[in-house]
Amino acid sequence: MPLKAIEINENLIHAYQALVKVYTTLNNHQYALFYQTKLDKVIERMKGKTLPTEQEILFGR
Q1: Which of 20, 34, 51, 57 could disulfide-pair with 5, CB 3.0 to 4.6 Å?
Q2: What is the pLDDT of residue 44?
Q3: In this predicted structure, what is the pLDDT of residue 60?
Q4: Does the structure show a pLDDT above 90 at 18?
Q5: Which long-range CB contacts under 8 A does 35-43 form with residues at least 24 apart?
């Protein structure tokens, strides 16, 4: 059974939160900011409850 849009977005939120925490801990603020930006986009998208495009998943656009 395919995942629903909300489940995919929630999974992405958890993954990006973990990556932000790891890179912040490692003092790699460039990557932490990169993943924080991706996290913000997913949260914004959750308001519209849409699926991420393949481009967004692969390239973060």
Answers
A1: 51
A2: 83
A3: 62
A4: yes
A5: 38/12, 39/13, 42/9, 42/12, 42/13, 42/16, 43/13
Amino acid at 2: P
Note down the domain range covering 43: 5-51
> Is position 23 within any domain?
yes
Residue 49: the pLDDT is 64
Q: How many domains does the chain have?
A: 1
The single residue listed with the structure tokens 């489940």 is 7
For 30-40, letters b (16+ CB in 10 Å) and e give eebebbbebbe
Does some domain include residue 58?
Answer: no
- Domain contains 60: no
Q: CA angle, corner 35, sides to 61 and 5, nearest 5?
A: 60
